[in-house]
Each structure stands twice: as C-alpha cells, then as structure tokens.
Amino acid sequence: MNLTSKPISLVVDERGELRPATSTIERRLSHMRGMYADAEAERAALAQDDALVYEVYQYDMPEFVGELVVCTTVLHPGKVGDEFFMTKGHFHEQRDRAEVYYGLSGEGRLLLAKDDEFADVPMGASTVAYVPPYWAHRTVNTGDEPLVFLAVYPGDAGHDYGTIETDGFPQLVVERDGAVAVLSER
Ligand code: S6P
Ligand code: ZN
C-alpha cells in the first residue's frame, strides 16, 4: 500500500468502530479452527453457527519506522466449551516492536508470552496495557459485553500469526465454578 501519513483526527463510535478506518477485519470461529482447547466443543459451535468473534478497525499508515498504526478491536462475548472468546494472538514480525492497548469498555485479560515466561494483565475501560518488545499477545473477553480497546503500534511491526498457529499459546482462560480461571499449559 502506498500511503502518506498526514495529521488526522479519528473517532471511536459507541460500539468501538474507528472512523474513518482504512481496513476492517472480521474474525469468525471458522477463521480460528484448532485454536480453542476443546476440539469437540469447537466442532459443535461451528455446526451451530459460525459466530463472529471479533472485529478490527484500522487506520493504516506507511509501514515505516517512526509511523504509528491506530486500530480498535471489538471482541465479542462468548465461549467455546468453557473457554472464553479470544483473538488469534500474534508476535510482531519485527520482534522488538512494542504496543500499547487502551481499554474502552468491557472486561477481559491480555495474555502475554515470551520464551518460558508468561503473564496476564486485566483489560477493561480505562486500562492501559503495555506489550513489551518480543512478547506474543492475545486478548480474551471474560465478560457479557464486547471488550473494546484501542491499540497503537509501530508502522513497520508486521504480524506473525504462524508461530502461535503452530505452537499454540501457553495460557487459556476458562470459566470454572462460575469464576474466571487463567490456566497455564506449561
Ligand atoms: C495489532 C494489535 C491488535 C490486534 C487485534 C486482533 O498489533 O495487537 O490490533 O491485531 O486485537 O488480534 P489478532 O491477534 O487477531 O491480530
Ligand atoms: Zn500486536
């Protein structure tokens, strides 16, 4: 994409759409096959309805060092079996690129992983979460409303989804006895 950045003011509407957006992504359950721990529950959910799990509204910028991309994510409430709806999760292709999330509404967790380390931090209205360089990140909605957040990341960061598609993510977030539980697979 041949883009030139200019001064601009964007608006996040009441449902979390960024306006104007230059690209929009819709992720449904069928785009995430194999990512939820309970394969049988995933099959059953897909047989019923290819649910919309999340939407991303992005204002693209040139993919250069020094530029910043802004986008919002609307992560819908729901579960596959007892596992809460989540994003695919990724590393930045340029591993040393960081990111900031600002929570707008809803509640959930941001899961982070790097080598043998992992962490989870709360996400919700007014939360500022920092994704340090080198950490994979995935967001989970643990509430009944959409979890909406704004993200800002370097224009040249890129996205590596393949590593998590192959290796999985070391934590999962489930409902256990009516409470939210973060389980570690390591
Ligand atoms: C981009 C940033 C977010 C995610 C979005 C969807 O670097 O971390 O905007 O793209 O939350 O998640 P994912 O893992 O499908 O890109
Ligand atoms: Zn990211």
Q: In this structure, how is the largest beta sheet organized?
A: 6 strands, antiparallel
**Could you give the distance between the termini?**
40 Å
The strand order across the widest sheet is: 3-4-5-14-9-12
What would CATH call the architecture? Sandwich
SSE pattern: EEEHEEEEEEEEEEEEHEE
What's the CATH H-level superfamily name? Answer: Jelly Rolls
Secondary-structure-derived class: mainly beta
Average residue-wise pLDDT = 96
SS summary, helix count: 2
The bound ligands are:
D-sorbitol-6-phosphate, zinc ion
CATH level-1 class: Mainly Beta
| Shape, per Cα inertia axes | globular
Please describe the topology of this protein.
Layout: E1 11-12, E2 18-19, E3 23-28, H1 39-48, E4 52-59, E5 68-75, E6 79-80, E7 83-84, E8 91-92, E9 99-105, E10 107-114, E11 117-124, E12 128-131, E13 136-141, E14 147-154, E15 159-160, H2 162-167, E16 171-176, E17 179-184
Antiparallel strand pairs: 1-2, 3-4, 4-5, 5-14, 6-7, 8-15, 9-12, 9-14, 10-11, 10-13, 16-17
Bound molecules: D-sorbitol-6-phosphate and zinc ion.
Residues 90, 92, 99, 137, 153 line the site of zinc ion.
Brief write-up:
With 186 residues, the chain is mainly beta. It has helices at 39-48, 162-167, and strands at 11-12, 18-19, 23-28, 52-59, 68-75, 79-80, 83-84, 91-92, 99-105, 107-114, 117-124, 128-131, 136-141, 147-154, 159-160, 171-176, 179-184. The protein has a single domain, classed as Jelly Rolls.
